[in-house]
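re the bet — no i am not wrong, look at it urself. input seq straight from the record:
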Amino acid sequence: MSSKANKTDDGLYNVLKWASWTTSAGFADWYVVQTVSPSFSGDYSNLTCFLVFNDEVRANTAEWRALGLRGNQSGPMVVEATLGEDRLVGPDGDGVRSNDEIVDPYFLLLTSAAWNGMSMAMIDLAKSHTTQKRHADVGLRVCDYPTIQDVCIVVYTYLLCDHDVIH
């Protein structure tokens, strides 16, 4: 089991969380970790989220060797902490609901907005590059070549079509 939590008689939570992949491992000021709830009995929708601070985690990027994930400082993380009820994120046992109704929608919306913004910036750069520079030997801009125009028409048509990207 990669996580567990139990509630002590004095109302504290003993939390154990092993995460093989965490963004900003060891670099963030705080993390929200999701574990099975103290009342866990095999139902993996019975989850609880806890707020933990940087000094309560063991995390680093040195052990993570995945292609492309070094840029966001990803790595494994271990949490072994005793936390008060004030460190619950949402009610005990509400982890799936808060994840599905709050965390995922914001994450998906905001990351898609960021990727869309980067894509639009790249298109602007490509447009600028192909329309402003002229080849000295022939006096043509990159966008003046028929091959480039054909590719642009294909891409533009593709972007306008209503199609299913995921097959």
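see?? Residues 3-93 form a domain with the Butyryl-CoA Dehydrogenase, subunit A; domain 2 fold (CATH 2.40.110.10). told u. also The mean pLDDT is 82. so pay up
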